[in-house]
């Protein structure tokens, strides 16, 4: 049996001394599954969707740990890049002039309701795609989507909370609030164990995945 995980730095295991202690490894070990962790520091949600659609046929279970709803993916002749307007353009910058212009514009003029609505649409489309493929999946938030719940879009009701751990008000940040963090504010081993325990409990409540 095979497990695919996608996410950002909190799923990758950023700042851990040993990536084997990241929560995807702990969950896979508990299930007895072979793991492929495609999480990447700085990853936005669009790349997670792309990885799922490209890879899902090869796996028995997919866990999607969504990043902040405002992370947007763009592409130009130099490749794919992300912008996070929630950080006022401080992340995902580089020395390519035209990207810097775009980053500055979006950081100044983005619309949170629009970005959150787009993220909900992505979640709904992916959950329905996985159901159509009859693939078992779990979704959860790293830290981002819970900050926009006050926007109260009608799409919130389309989220399948059975397969969405913590929906609508909990994320990794709440579960690991008192856990030690590294200099760049990523939770460390204790936090990864907390997240893994939450996921394992959730899977158990669903009746397992076998």
Summarize this, please?
Helix content is 38%, strand content 15%. By secondary structure, it is α/β, with parallel strands linked by helices. It has a four-stranded parallel β-sheet with strand order 2-1-3-6, sandwiched between helices. The chain has a two-stranded antiparallel ribbon with strand order 4-5.
Structural write-up:
The protein is built from seven helices and six strands, in the order βααβαβββααβαα. The chain has a single domain, classed as SGNH hydrolase (Rossmann fold, 3-Layer(aba) Sandwich). The protein is 38% helix and 15% strand. By secondary structure, the chain is an alpha/beta fold. Helix 3 packs parallel to helix 5. The model has no long low-confidence stretch (mean pLDDT 89).
What percentage of residues falls in helices of 4 or more residues?
Answer: 25-40%
| Silhouette | globular
Rounded mean pLDDT is 89
Approximate strand percentage: 5-15%
Uncertain residue segments:
none
Query: What is the overall number of helices?
Result: 7
- Say what the CATH topology is: Rossmann fold
Main sheet record: 4 strands, parallel
Please tally the β strands and state the result: 6
The CATH architecture assignment turns out to be 3-Layer(aba) Sandwich
Order of helices and strands: EHHEHEEEHHEHH
Distance between the termini: 8 Å
Class derived from helix and strand content? alpha/beta
The tally of domains stands at: 1
Name of the CATH first level:
Alpha Beta
Strand order of the largest sheet: 2-1-3-6
Radius of gyration: 17 Å
Q: CATH-wise, what's the superfamily?
A: SGNH hydrolase
């Amino acid at each position: 049996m095979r497990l695919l995980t996608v996410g950002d730095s909190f799923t990758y295991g950023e700042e851990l001394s040993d990536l084997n202690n990241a929560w995807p490894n702990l969950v896979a070990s508990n299930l007895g599954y072979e793991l492929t962790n495609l999480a990447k520091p700085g990853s936005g949600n669009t790349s997670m969707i792309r990885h799922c659609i490209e890879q899902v046929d090869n796996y028995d279970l997919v866990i999607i740990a969504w990043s902040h709803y405002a992370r947007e993916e763009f592409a130009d002749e130099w490749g794919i890049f992300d912008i996070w307007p929630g950080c006022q353009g401080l992340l995902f910058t580089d020395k390519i002039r035209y990207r810097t212009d775009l980053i500055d514009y979006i950081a100044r003029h983005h619309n949170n309701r629009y970005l959150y609505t787009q993220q909900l649409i992505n979640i709904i489309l992916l959950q329905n795609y996985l159901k159509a493929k009859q693939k078992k999946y779990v979704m959860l938030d790293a830290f981002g989507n819970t900050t926009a719940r006050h926007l109260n879009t009608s799409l919130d009701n389309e989220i399948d909370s059975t397969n969405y751990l913590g929906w609508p008000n909990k994320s990794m940040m709440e579960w690991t609030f008192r856990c030690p963090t590294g200099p760049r504010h990523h939770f460390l081993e204790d936090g990864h164990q907390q997240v893994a325990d939450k996921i394992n409990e959730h899977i158990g409540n669903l009746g397992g995945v076998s």
